Amino acid sequence: MLSTTAPDSPGWRANLLQFDIRGTTFSVLRAGIALSQILTLVATPYAALMQSVMDREEAPYCGGIKAISAFCVGGDGVPPTLRVAIIVALLAAVALGVLPGPMAVAHAWISFSLVNSIALPDGGETIASIATLILIPIAFSDNRRWVFDRNPKPLPDFRRGIGYAGVIALRIQVAIIYLNSAVAKTGVEDWANGSAEYYFVRSYMFGASGWVKSLLEAVTDVPVLVAALTWGVIIGEVTIGLCVLLGPRWRKIAFIAAAVLHLGIIATIGLWSFATVMICVVGIACMPTAGRKRLLEMIPRRIRSGSDEPAETAARSIDQQPAPALS
Questions:
Q1: Rounded CA gap, 16 and 161, in Å?
Q2: Which residue of 103, 138, 285, 286 lies most exposed, with the fewest beta carbons within 10 A?
Q3: What are the pLDDT digits (tens) for 117-145?
Q4: What is the pLDDT of residues 85-125, one digit of tens each?
């Protein structure tokens, strides 16, 4: 449920005044996305990433706008090993939190490159390419030189507004992804009749292995349990898609549901990089965005103008104002 509260209402003012993602949560989750991409590049041979598929030309694909890809710039004059090393170094800088704002642009460029230039990108690369683009305005609200800077400069109002808009955009995007996935599954027979997880567990390409495979096969041999697992995925996706748009407590539920869902995907069909990206993206969409210390710094200039009310009292007054659902 989206709030209809006007942008200049007390709730919106409080949310904007308190907005500050310069903490560990955003930095760690964004690092998680970068590390999953590093793992893909380091653990996968370059030839496998660029494997020709059916009748398509050999990867990397560099036609049109794809020419700006990190896998295409410089052409054949750049050895593949050097190219991958440069990309990994940039991703490592993102993971370490160096220049969060500028490096967000580099991160979005690399994510664009992965999804558009390698031969077989998965859902993780696709989501990362969308999410890292939205992360640019969010990271723009982090004016530190790197994430371990404990005394950053005060955050200007316009950076707060841009960052806050980015977080809202990401929440809406996450809701679209999960609700669309849930609705689409209801139109597929195996999902609708509750048997999809039976086949996923036994898939030769993505199925589980070892004792996990034996356990899951035993569980999915029971019709009631396999139906519960299958429909549980759809319910989980709907839960994430709706709760991410609601208040802080509901967003905690969305994040827990995403973690359970994607850890389950890892257990059943693998796809570590995809699951890691999704957990981190949902985590950023659901993260707390209030910085109490920053709010008190802003009170004298934004609230106390023309008033004798102490800053701390004004801060408490704002905190008590009802915030919009999409905060």
A1: 6
A2: 103
A3: 888 777 888 999 999 999 999 998 888 88
A4: 999 999 999 999 899 989 999 999 999 999 998 887 778 88
DSSP reduced 3-state for 290: strand
pTM: 0.81
CB neighbour list of residue 27: distance below 8 Å, 6 or more residues apart = 97, 100, 147
Helices and strands per DSSP (H, E), number in the chain: 15, 0
- Which tokens is 14 given? 């409080």
* Structural domain boundaries in the chain: 11-302
Q: How far is CA 13 from CA 3, 21, 93, 302, 319, in A?
A: 14, 17, 34, 10, 10
**In the block, which residue shows the tokens 């054949």?**
76
Query: pLDDT band for position 12 (50/70/90)?
Result: low
- CA dihedral sign, ordered 205, 206, 212, 217: negative
Which conformational region is residue 195 in: left (phi greater than 0), alpha (psi within -120 to 50 degrees), or beta?
Answer: alpha
CB 227 within 8 A of CB 194: yes
